[in-house]
């Protein structure tokens, strides 16, 4: 929100009324601020001053107060759907949809739409509500991060499978690159499912998106095997090798996966990758076998 000059006392009084859920006092302070401003005020009053009151009304799911503040011009730009999603303010979200809110608008340059919020916190109720109201699990932000990207990074396998039953697709969101970063007991299962659904195991991140690749190349872009090696997950590394991942493929810094395992001190993973470099295909038929230390 843009602030303009010194804020009149009605701004804080309106916020206090909003906290109390007192719509009549909210209306009174808005009237005094916007429709009967004191003549001594240095500059014109601005509805944007009342944005904190709008946020509080959203958090309370006080739909009548939200509607009133919107009608007064408090939020003339994009409706704050992310606030409503985090608050599980379903009545307010219905109002936003009635007013033309784009449920699939990315939240930022590197932030996918609001469906990513409940997927990051394993909020099944909010996830299902958004899907039922048109949320797209494949909608990308500029950096090809989708709500499903968030899911494969943190959500339970059941939630990920639900997304795929509702239209999620491995062609969007660099899914395998995120799945290999999981550190929980479901990591291997998720990687297996994403691979079974068709995610390419040897694709360099953003290699099909020249603009984003150019922006992110200096930070090191590799295959899922590069990131799995860096994370030190031996089970995932062996599985990727069993699915044809290339242990000798170089990333944008001209390094192999083994280099990143060694850099992070993952000695066992480095040995696995060294064996795969010396004998490509060694793990193709026995994905569960690890070399003896």
List keywords for this structure.
293 residues, disordered C terminus
Per DSSP, the total helix count is 17
Question: What's the end-to-end separation, in Å?
Answer: 58 Å
Protein structure class: mainly alpha
The biggest sheet, with number of strands, parallel, antiparallel or mixed sense and barrel status, is: none
Q: Which radius of gyration do the C-alpha atoms yield?
A: 25 Å
From the spread of the alpha carbons, the general shape counts as elongated
The secondary-structure element order is: HHHHHHHHHHHHHHHHH
Return residue spans where pLDDT drops below 50 for at least 5 consecutive residues: 287-293
Residue-averaged pLDDT: 92
Strand portion, in percent? under 5%
As a percent range, the share of helical residues equals 40-55%
Number of strands: 0
What does this structure look like?
With 293 residues, this protein is an all-alpha fold. The chain has 17 helices and no strands. The protein has helices at 9-19, 23-35, 51-59, 63-71, 81-86, 90-98, 116-121, 124-132, 147-154, 157-165, 175-179, 187-196, 210-216, 224-231, 234-242, 257-263, 267-278. Helix 1 packs antiparallel against helix 2 (23-35), helix 1 packs parallel to helix 3 (51-59) and helix 16 (257-263) runs antiparallel to helix 17 (267-278). The chain is elongated, with a radius of gyration of 25 Å.
Short overview:
By secondary structure, this protein is mainly α.
Question: What does the secondary structure layout of this molecule look like, with pairings?
Answer:
Blueprint: H1 9-19, H2 23-35, H3 51-59, H4 63-71, H5 81-86, H6 90-98, H7 116-121, H8 124-132, H9 147-154, H10 157-165, H11 175-179, H12 187-196, H13 210-216, H14 224-231, H15 234-242, H16 257-263, H17 267-278
Helix pairs in contact: 1-2, 1-3, 3-4, 14-15, 14-16, 15-17, 16-17
């Amino acid at each position: 929100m843009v602030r303009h000059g010194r804020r009149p006392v009605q701004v804080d009084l309106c916020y206090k009324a909003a906290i109390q859920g007192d719509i009549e006092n909210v209306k009174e302070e808005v009237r005094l601020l916007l429709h009967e401003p004191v003549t001594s005020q240095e500059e014109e009053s601005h509805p944007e001053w009342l944005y904190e009151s709008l946020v509080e009304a959203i958090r309370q799911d006080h739909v009548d107060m939200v509607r009133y503040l919107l009608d007064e011009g408090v939020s003339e730009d994009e409706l704050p759907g992310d606030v409503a999603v985090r608050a599980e303010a379903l009545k307010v979200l219905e109002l936003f949809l009635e007013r033309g809110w784009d449920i699939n608008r990315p939240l930022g340059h590197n932030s996918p739409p609001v469906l990513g919020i409940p997927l990051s916190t394993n909020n099944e109720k909010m996830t299902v509500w958004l899907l039922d109201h048109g949320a797209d699990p494949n909608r990308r932000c500029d950096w090809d991060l989708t709500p499903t990207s968030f899911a494969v990074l943190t959500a339970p396998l059941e939630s990920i499978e639900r997304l795929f039953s509702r239209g999620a697709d491995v062609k969007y969101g660099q899914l395998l690159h995120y799945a290999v970063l999981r550190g929980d007991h479901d990591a291997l299962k998720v990687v297996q499912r994403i691979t079974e659904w068709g995610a390419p195991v040897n694709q360099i991140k953003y290699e099909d998106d020249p603009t984003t690749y150019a922006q992110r190349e200096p930070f090191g872009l590799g295959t899922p095997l590069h990131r799995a090696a860096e994370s030190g997950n031996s089970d995932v590394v062996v599985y990727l090798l069993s699915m044809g991942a290339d242990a000798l493929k170089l990333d944008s810094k001209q390094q192999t996966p083994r280099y990143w395992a060694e850099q992070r001190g993952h000695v066992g993973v480095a040995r696995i990758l060294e064996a795969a470099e010396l004998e490509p295909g060694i793990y193709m038929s026995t994905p569960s076998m690890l070399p003896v230390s």
